[in-house]
Structure prediction request, 427 residues.
Amino acid sequence: MPAIALLGAQWGDEGKGKATDLLGDRVDYVVKFNGGNNAGHTVVVGDQTYALHLLPSGVITPGVVPVIGNGVVVDLGVLFSEIDATTARGIDCSRLVVSANAHVITPYHVQMDKVGERFLGNRKIGTTGRGIGPAYADKMSRLGVRVQDLFDEKILRQKVEGALDIKNQLLVKGYNRKAISIDDVVAELLSYVERLHPLVADTTLLLDRALNDGKVVLLEAGQATMLDVDHGTYPFVTSSNATAGGACTGSGIPPTRIDRVVAVVKAYTTRVGEGPMPTELHDADGERLRSVGAEYGVTTGRPRRCGWYDAVIARYAARVNGVTDFVLTKLDVLTGLERIPVCVAYDVDGVRHDEMPMTQTEFHHARPVYETLPGWDEDISAARSLEDLPKPARSYVEALEAMSGAPISVVGVGPDRDETVAIRELV
Ligand code: GDP
Ligand code: IMO
Ligand code: MG
Prediction:
């Protein structure tokens, strides 16, 4: 049976949490395959709002098995606090499964993230400060600590010693900070073992069996295409693969078993942190998108940078992910605008680019080429089919579909689960 990848087409916060929740009733497993608690996914159900960071959004749907895949970096303190807080609100987290191969974010990763950013000065990335980059750096350097290492104290100590060897020298001699105690780190990690052990499994085997048994598996990305370490606006990216390829490596589900790739895309563009964003607005329109769209980070509370829809990016996301369906979110936020500009291409030093430019320098120089579409005034939050939308809103959706490289199958007209226009089934 099918595996479905669900990911972000822009710079994150497209509404992946809501999209996962929408599919919740029709899926059996929801797997987080990349990132860690840098993510912030909002799920609104009636008068309840849930903000999830490390738990897959599928945990909200009764009966779904949430899985933290091997591609995730796990801060165990954050994991257990989130489980406790979510359980206290009446959500059953007891089915959660964690991959034995997932890497662990330790206190030294968080410290290296924060100190590293401070020392980068005006070259900083604007990370979430959660230790994500240093944890993935250790993974690639083969200095990481994996979940399974916590079950062998001798091995754990060796790995922590190995990881801290150079880092402590750097902290003391390079960054003028105190050295981190190996004993303290080992003791903290061991304190989680009793709670962690029953959750841990060989998740690639589990998911293979689930697919063989006809179950539906949803692979839910954190971050997004333009924050992907390979395909995003490097170096202003996160440190994992948030694109469709990452869904395979981060879960152990092979590409031949994924038959649908759903990309969530906002009806305009936002970005948190540093890095280029061609359609960014520094005027009243940008301020309006931020206030009407409530564009403040779920994880760090930072105001999100806002701008018009960028079809070059949507086409790029369609291409590198093999998108079969777009979920277009937050169309309601545009209600009341007289005219809505949409970026259809870039002008790079006088040359028109219809596709993502090849180099970082060109992308930094990219100026949006806009087409302007008519707006609408009517409240659209009660629309449930395309026919319910005022004509200009429907034309906006159709224009975006024509320029974005894949069909739009769902349109969001409000944060609640019900505030959705369904065009085509996703599962
Ligand atoms: P994620 O990280 O991709 O899961 O997205 P976030 O939760 O960080 O940000 C998306 C925000 O938009 C959340 O506050 C959602 O409740 C909200 N949202 C999602 N879809 C819609 C929509 O169609 N309309 C409106 N107004 N809000 C939406
Ligand atoms: P969701 O899953 C938006 C951004 C940070 C920073 C860069 C690197 O909610 O869409 P990191 O801490 O990952 O090393 O930071 O990536 N970033 C996000 N922006 N949404 C997210 O997640 C993000 N996760 C990381 O702001 O620019
Ligand atoms: Mg988010």
